[in-house]
Amino acid sequence: MLAMSHRPNPGRRPNDPLLDGKQRKKVPYEFVLDALQESAPWTRPMFGCTAVYVGDKIVLVLREKPGSRDKGVWLATTLEHHDSLRREFPNMRSIAVLGKDVTGWQLLPADASDFEESAMHACELVLARDSRLGKIPKARKTPSVKRAANPKHRAPEPGRPTKRKQRK
Fold first, then answer.
1. Does the model's pTM come out above 0.85?
2. Bigger pLDDT: 139 or 55?
């Protein structure tokens, strides 16, 4: 498998164990990444799963957690595309762990008899740039923005005493 395990960064060699810090968990359903290889997929850990991106779009999430009902390939889609996708993926369903009856994200369950066939078809749709799959994630706030918004982390106003104890 040649898929990158992180967002491409020109100043860094991909999959360099000396630079990665900690050992990453094995990616579940690696055949999915192999099938997407020509679109240069990259992955990012997300909530104990593996998010799969093509360009700036998150297209799939791979989840294989013991004891979970929601093991399989999650499809990044929207409610408006459910009916047309369900015609192509009869075993597709909403994801229980998300806590809603119907969600934009849909699951190709790993325990379905057609799981591998369905996962490969989803890869074909991604490669064909099918507009029903893929979402551009909302921009993530940087920690500095969060810290500045928290009054505990703001710099004191000029002329106002700080609450820090003086060292002797």
1. no
2. 55
Backbone angles phi, psi at 94, to 5 degrees: -70, 165
Helix segments in 99-168, DSSP class H: 115-127, 143-149
153's torsion region: left (phi>0), alpha (psi -120 to 50) or beta? alpha
CB atoms within 10 A of CB 165: 6
| Dist CA 111 CA 96 (whole Å) | 15
CB 125 within 8 A of CB 133: yes
* CA dist list (Å): 105 to 5, 56, 130, 132: 22, 17, 16, 11
Q: Are 108 and 118 in contact (CB under 8 A)?
A: yes
CA–CA distance, 164 with 167 (Å, rounded to integer): 9
> What span, in angstroms and rounded, lies between the C-alpha atoms of 153 and 156?
9
The residue type of 118 is: S
Res. 149: pLDDT tops 70: no
Are 105 and 58 in contact by the 8 Å Cβ rule? The answer is no
